[in-house]
DNA sequence: GTGTTTAGAACGTGACGACTA
DNA sequence: TTAGTCGTCACGTTCTAAACA
């Protein structure tokens, strides 16, 4: 009959001090690797710590130092591969820097939802907030809001509050379009991500700008929602209405997949009849039918950059030069061919 | 010249008390929704809180209550779709229950790595540990270790410590094999996940058991590592050595994709020449070429179950009956056909 | 008495100045 | 002097018991 009441009392710094025959302050010095502790004393203390299985109380520590060693992460766009990878890599970087990460995943990008999610983090005394923002609305929710802690935003638009960390979506898109242009394509359809997505807008701009530079103008993009289904539908409609394209730049790999599906249904061959370029280089892309030419993003680097930005804000480290914006690079596979 | 020194002092419970003309204890009562506060007083206090933008210090609260309102999550297997979805849904459930989640992603399943990752969580005073364990080694790392807090393990094996939450991998695999048997297949090859993966072993057992029941015995599985590449390689070798199968049960959708790729390369048609069944139902599966017949898992429910198990352990709620193990269900698409 | 409010004591650390050899 | 050590205080909350309408 193990009752919850017999809460095993946990050792405090005083227990350790008593066992080691020193004051609690000396134990504190040992814990924090401060100088002026005789090696023999240090050893006695460490032995006592081990023996009592003493673990410092982070709560007490946070109370007096006003530092929680904790960072809040507000992440939207999960569980897609890109956002998931960024979160994963950010977590690793944070751990390496000695910080714990409290993550929250707002159900939508509504202002109220984001604010209450963030307020929960603030209540947990996080030292900084990192916002992984898929939609512009997520960024806007922080406008004119004094958080009391630094804000680092992972977002591909420069508007709005907070230190910005990003991958160069626009340049990535230009690279994709350039590839198709070099293959001799002139009509390059774009299946863009949804309105409100900053990545979608940046990629769209890159596509439009690069086309304009090549003297090709005025094309309107199609709009998907990142899902394979949306692009499947768009592809099916294009074919049905006799507007089957010769070259497509899809806003992400999932939509490229949906498009490939629609084209295959219509009996069109890729890359024989249609060239397709994706974006992200998800692990599946190399095994699409055909293997997808796409643009690879450095999510590992992005996660690191975000943590570096946090540390700079917290002045834990001498503020290193801001990292150069990482430019995605083209991965050519079998879904594109010259006309 | 904004120096770090001008740290904006944050309002405390005493500031609120002074402004409202009451004692700090009355403010505390208001904060915690305790009775015996006159409505007029409560209102004055709430007004003062709003005016000062007062936020209670979680650190101070945690120190005295010994409750951090925080749960530690040790997650392996990211950033794959399954684990990512589970993490996402667990986070949401935790937030709904008023808990923050500190997540950590060990780089590998080594005992030392897992322990140090977990110890970081313990130092943060988490009230419970949730272990999302892909490999058996992750579970083993916790054997014989008194954490001091409840442990809930999301893992498909019943061995080892901690409350267990899982999806019925074995039954899911049986369903997949049954489907192929009903289509008249007798030789059903299995491309299993890696040694050490509990999901892989469970699915493998389900496949073997179901075959045995059908009077088909002794088949040895192929071994992939969950990645499309591994299955592509396996598929290519099978075909090259003249052992092209007529029916394959792939351990997950990604490996099914790699196999489809290898079969397509070899000029074999799916489902005409080969029937393929996957596992997971990732968002891409419906748009593979051909759309993949697979087994769908309820990751949303699993995340909820995990949080429910935590709450039961913490006795926040009257312990409800443990949820029935969730059985995955078959989703039939176009990659399977009768012989 | 009864409902409301208050003052003081924890909680377990780190910072600081004082003390000792 | 100086390296090593110690005692007191503060951090911001909740809990307990006593005082007040």
Compile the SSE list and pairings:
The structure is a homodimer of 339-residue chains.
Chain A: H1 13-20, H2 24-31, H3 39-52, H4 58-65, E1 70-75, H5 81-96, E2 100-104, H6 111-123, E3 129-132, H7 136-140, E4 151-154, E5 163-165, H8 169-182, E6 188-192, H9 198-213, E7 222-223, H10 228-240, E8 247-250, H11 253-265, E9 275-277, E10 294-296, H12 299-314, E11 329-331
Parallel strand pairs in A: 1-2, 1-3, 3-4, 4-5, 6-7, 6-8, 8-9
Antiparallel strand pairs in A: 10-11
Helix pairs in contact in A: 1-2, 1-3, 5-12, 8-9, 10-11
Chain A binds a DNA duplex (21 and 21 nucleotides) through helix 2 and helix 4.
Domain HTH lacI-type (chains A, B): 11-65
Pfam families (chains A, B): LacI, Peripla_BP_3
Keywords (chains A, B): DNA-binding, Transcription, Transcription regulation
Walk me through this protein's architecture:
2 copies of one chain form a homodimer. Chain A has 339 residues and is an alpha/beta fold. Chain A folds into 3 domains: 13-56, 434 Repressor (Amino-terminal Domain); 67-167 and 299-325, Rossmann fold, CATH 3.40.50; 169-297, Rossmann fold (3-Layer(aba) Sandwich). The first copy, chain A, has 12 helices and 11 strands. In chain A, the strands form 3 sheets. In chain A, strands 2-1-3-4-5 form a 5-stranded parallel β-sheet, with helices on both faces. In chain A, helix 5 links the parallel strand 1 (70-75) and strand 2 (100-104). In chain A, helix 5 crosses helix 12 and helix 10 (228-240) packs parallel to helix 11. Chains A and B meet through helix 4, helix 5, strand 2, helix 6 and helix 10 of A and helix 4, helix 5, strand 2, helix 6 and helix 10 of B. The first copy, chain A, binds a DNA duplex (21 and 21 nucleotides) through helix 2 and helix 4. Chains A, B: This is LacI family transcriptional regulator.
């Amino acid at each position: 009959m193990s009752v919850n009441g017999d809460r095993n009392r946990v050792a405090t710094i005083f227990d350790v001090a008593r066992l080691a025959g020193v004051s609690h302050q000396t134990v504190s010095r040992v814990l924090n690797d401060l100088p002026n502790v005789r090696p023999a004393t240090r050893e006695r203390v460490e032995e006592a710590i081990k023996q009592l299985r003493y673990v410092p109380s982070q709560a007490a520590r946070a109370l007096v130092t006003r530092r929680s060693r904790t960072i809040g992460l507000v992440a939207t766009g999960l569980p897609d591969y890109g956002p998931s990878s960024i979160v994963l890599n950010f977590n690793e970087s944070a751990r390496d820097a000695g910080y714990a990460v409290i993550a929250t995943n707002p159900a939508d990008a509504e202002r109220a939802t984001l604010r209450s999610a963030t307020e929960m983090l603030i209540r947990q005394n996080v030292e900084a907030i990192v916002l992984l923002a898929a939609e512009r609305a997520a960024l806007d929710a922080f406008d004119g809001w004094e958080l009391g802690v630094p804000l680092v935003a992972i977002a591909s638009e420069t508007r709005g509050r907070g230190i910005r960390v990003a991958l160069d979506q626009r340049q990535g898109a230009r690279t994709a379009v350039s590839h198709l242009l070099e293959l001799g394509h002139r009509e390059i359809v774009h299946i863009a991500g949804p309105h409100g997505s900053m990545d979608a807008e940046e990629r769209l701009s890159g596509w439009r700008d690069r086309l304009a530079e090549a003297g090709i103008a005025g094309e309107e993009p199609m709009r998907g929602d990142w899902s394979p289904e949306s692009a499947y539908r768009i592809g099916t409609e294009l074919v049905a209405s006799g507007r089957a394209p010769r070259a497509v730049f899809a806003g992400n790999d999932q939509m490229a997949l949906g498009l490939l599906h629609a084209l295959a249904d219509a009996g069109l061959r890729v890359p024989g009849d249609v060239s397709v370029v994706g974006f992200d280089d998800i692990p599946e892309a190399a095994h699409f039918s055909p293997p997808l030419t796409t643009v690879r993003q450095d999510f590992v680097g992005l996660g690191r950059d975000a943590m570096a930005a946090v540390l700079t804000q917290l002045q834990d480290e001498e503020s290193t030069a801001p990292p150069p914006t990482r430019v995605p690079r083209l991965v050519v596979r079998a879904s594109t061919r010259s006309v």
